[in-house]
Amino acid sequence: xxxxxxxxxxxxxxxxxxxxxxxxxxxxxxxxxxxxxxxxxxxxxxxxxxxxxxxxxxxxxxxxxxxxxxxxxxxxxxxxxxxxxxxxxxxxxxxxxxxxxxxxxxxxxxxxxxxxxxxxxxxxxxxxxxxxxxxxxxxxxxxxxxxxxxxxxxxxxxxxxxxxxxxxxxxxxxxxxxxxxxxxxxxxxxxxxxxxxxxxxxxxxxxxxxxxxxxxxxxxxxxxxxxxxxxxxxxxxxxxxxxxxxxxxxxxxxxxxxxxxxxxxxxxxxxxxxxxxxxxxxxxxxxxxxxxxxxxxxxxxxxxxxxxxxxxxxxxxxx
Length: 319
Known about the structure:
The chain is α+β, with helices and mostly antiparallel strands. The chain has helices at 4-9, 17-29, 35-44, 70-75, 88-92, 117-121, 151-157, 195-199, 251-255, 303-306; strands at residues 56-57, 102-107, 113-116, 127-134, 139-149, 165-170, 190-194, 204-209, 212-213, 223-225, 238-244, 279-282, 294-295. 21% of the residues lie in helices and 21% in strands. The strands form two sheets. Strands 1, 4, 5, 8, 9, 10, 12 and 13 form an eight-stranded mixed beta sheet that branches. A five-stranded mixed beta sheet has the order 3-2-11-6-7. A hairpin with a 2-residue loop joins β8 (204-209) and β9 (212-213).
């Protein structure tokens, strides 16, 4: 590992700026220098194409794995509202209008509210977090997301004592989203978590990636990220959040209940009927499709932070 001076003094280019910042985050986590220097470097990073979204680096929430390139993160996507091919969202999502945008929080809460997206952007300080992202299809990425813990919004809504689950409902507008005209799923896309899962600090209400606001194809203007679960659990382009006392009927579980459970925790010991979950292919790795696969970690490597949530549960039954 280079020292702080070497990292800051060496040439900064569009190709290496986020790798340099990752090294600084690691040094910060190791106590090599105060967080302020990492914050300054984070703020100096430029957006790749869109509007900048300033955020403070949080060294508690990062992985040291090599980052997936911005190009791969924004061109290899599952977002069926814009088509079922991996390249369809990048081609088609320009039709999505992200302003004005509101998110309704309702259900078993003492303070229901319709939030304007700009108010949500100000609800809590923005943080940059580097998370692993694991798709149920057996591929993965490492992405620098921007947002804050979902718990901030939940606490602001004051859930009632009977609240047990949280449901996320995505936009389903056939005028903006050509894929909604298909029958691949029942629309709108719906996902959910148990409330204690949603309150875990790792669950991220997400507004950006790679130093800028979310590109449309990545779930603009607001999505969640639940890094210990398969990617389809992280709902995109959210317009409604509902707190309930009953497990939500989530889209993929309704569509194929024997393939997609409600919990969908990353578990290398429980295979999907069509894909092994023991290993994964890291998108953008040297060698492409022929790159050696890597072992998948329980809970995607976040067991220390989340395994206690499932103590005593049969994770083969509650898949």
